[in-house]
Inverse folding.
């Protein structure tokens, strides 16, 4: 089968040496390589996304506290849970004292 010149398949670039034509089969291979790299990059990021989201609610009534039955409760506790559920993420939400949250945040562990 004879190939015909199709100007829509080529990109023209003005270089120092004049007009250079990039495209055709070379750009098809390049597109395949870029697609493959993007695909494998996405696959490599999946295990990182599979970890549960760690939420720490500061212990301060009515925002976050332990109720009479010993269960975590509070406005911010419920909001954190709702956001994670709406996003479809696995999560762990815990009530912690302000000082602990402050230290962990400063150390980059939260």
């Amino acid at each position: 089968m004879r190939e015909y010149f199709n100007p829509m398949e080529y990109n023209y670039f003005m270089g120092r040496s004049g007009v250079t034509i990039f495209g055709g089969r070379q750009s098809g291979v390049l597109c395949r390589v870029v697609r493959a790299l993007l695909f494998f990059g996405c696959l490599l990021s999946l295990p990182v996304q599979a970890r549960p989201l760690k939420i720490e609610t500061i212990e301060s009534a009515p925002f976050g506290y332990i109720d009479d039955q010993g269960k975590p409760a509070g406005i911010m506790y419920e909001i954190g849970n709702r956001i994670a559920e709406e996003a479809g993420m696995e999560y762990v939400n815990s009530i912690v004292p302000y000082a602990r949250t402050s230290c962990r945040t400063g150390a980059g562990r939260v």
Q: What stands out?
A: The chain has two domains: 7-48, 51-107. The radius of gyration is 27 Å. The helical segments are 25-49, 75-87, 98-107.
